[in-house]
Design goal:
It is built from 28 helices and 11 strands. With 684 residues, the chain is mainly alpha-helical. It has 4 domains: 222 residues, no CATH class; 139 residues, Fumarate Reductase Iron-sulfur Protein, Chain B, domain 2, CATH 1.10.1060; 156 residues, no CATH class; 121 residues, Rossmann fold, CATH 3.40.50. Strands 3-5-4-6-7 form a 5-stranded parallel beta sheet. The chain has a 4-stranded parallel beta sheet with strand order 9-8-10-11, sandwiched between helices. The protein is elongated and about 100 Å long. The termini are far apart.
Length: 684
Amino acid sequence: MPDPGLSAYLGLPGWLLLWILAAVAFSLFGRRVVHIVRVLRRARPENRWEQIPRRLWYALTNVFGQKRLLEEPAIGVAHLLIFWAFVFFATSFFWNLLRGLFPFLPVPYADEVTWMALPMEVLGVLALVALLVAAARRYVFTPPSLERTRDATIVLCLIGLLLVTFLGGQGSRAMSGEHAGAWSPAGARLGRAFSGLGIEPASAAALYLGMWWAHMATVLGFLAYLPYSKHAHLLFAPFGVLFTSLRPGGMAPESEGAARLEDFTWRQLFNALSCAECGRCDRACPVHASGFALSPKELVHHFKELVAGALAVSAPAKPALPGSDPGGDAREKASFVGDVVRREEVWACTTCMACMARCPVFNEHIPLIIEMRRHFVSRGDMDVGVKDVLVNLGRYGNSFGKSARARAGWTAGLDFPIKDARKEPVEWLWIVGDYASYDPRVQGVTRAAARVFQRAGLDFGILYEGEQNAGNDARRLGEEGLFGLLREKNLKTLEKARFEKIVTTDPHTYHVVKHEYGGGNGSRELRGAEVLHVAEVLDLLLRSGRLSVESPVDATVTYHDPCYLGRYNGVYEPPRRVLRALGMRLVEMGRNRDEAYCCGAGGGRIWMEDVPGIRERPAENRIREAAGLRGVSTLVVSCPKDLVMFQDALKTTQLEGSLVVKDLVELVESAGAPVVRSDSYVHA
């Protein structure tokens, strides 16, 4: 085959023409990247350079392995094939580009290397099939969360053209006999097809040059277009995965709130660049499904517009390619939080993290929402119920607005005393939490937990009136100052107590104490105490023999994973082991573990009024799912707020006769008398 770099075109040598095309493409690419960096530098700094080995592992499994995308196998496999074809063809492109720019280098073109032809052709054909699947999904079998956009069409066409021109070049090589059929199966078949169309072998050289230049021009055009496109995630998503938050739950750094571009961190703005607009976040979001104003996808799209506006201002002239944004200056001057992102969107979130758990590029929606909530809280712009609760938390240390002396009132129904951990040492410090302490619907569960602990011989105590709300909800509502106050008060109380381990009733308390009270387990404030949830302690007691099942429970149940125990902390198996140990038959709901459907209480939503026009509360949706399981009589929970929300949902859905809601600890207590051993230590 002729050398494309040494062949002449319009009186110009091929290498010079390639230099011109490459210079234009890389200039446009570099220009846009420089402007993007300028915009990101305007944002608040944030350190995302810690734990590099762990970050590289995330990138390896989720960029090159496409781990999250493969959770939806059909489209995941198609995307995996397209991605790996892209990797191979990018390598081939840069090899060919170098060879074309410097035609006298003593190296062959990539497509001249026989052993490279086979994997590239196989990937090329598979990727072409995958591309057709992706196109059919977008334009024929379009899910509601996916849009038909001009950008998507351009990107699909460019990828298709890239694959077709490569395979066409291989076919022309096969016509000339350069590649053996075994190494170029697709090329050999295309060569025969070309011959069948009447193309003479003598024309193979011209066909090859045409395909080679079309391929190189397509890639260079793609390179120039991509950073201006709304599908720039092809370029930026790998960096979004690499710089994902390693803090459990991805909590936003402390700040006074965000309303303008400069108030957000660079990583928060980076969400806009890496978003693939696939809609998985919308499909996972319980409040979006219920008809609330929030769409996680649309939220990130707002940030795309914010960044696009800043880029239009940053650029000295309008971008020359499609995807440019001429209205950026006016939009950037508009009030972003409040006008573009409406308060109804911000306050709808339950912080359940379903959106983040499903996002294939690890976008961080909840930190964005918390930043904007901080802004609204600083202005007093919030639901009346939220205002009342925040006042109660500040004044009384609990969300119910009741006296601190009434916090341990639930102990009055017990026939044994509970130690005060401030006055005598205990092995287990039990942080009971607001709902477990004050809500009459939950107090019975709290007493059941105390009886199980007592009968198992645990050396445990509580803080009585010294305990205050742990502050998780205050923080998720955006009241960072109040969270700091509650944390400080609790830490001062913990300094007076003597304990070895901490057990919590509420998963929200579990998360915030374990991870946000000074850096997690081993922090100075917690003196290295391990933090466990009641479900984990019950599992340890049963597995160690401290609890035995005297009366196995003959029942078929399903289990609901609390968001802050499951998605936030990965505690999925301990409660299931407990249910199996009790002799129960566990039937999983379709949405379980990291796909579990939120009850709707988190992020302070439990205190907010429902907005008009919602289709169905998240808790009602979940109750219907559980009630629809054949033979299931009980929905098991391990969160006080879940218990409250689902019991209410049973009434509103009129399903009280077909399903009951029970806490895990109630079932453990009813399963019979435990075996008590002399030692009080439970080994994790």
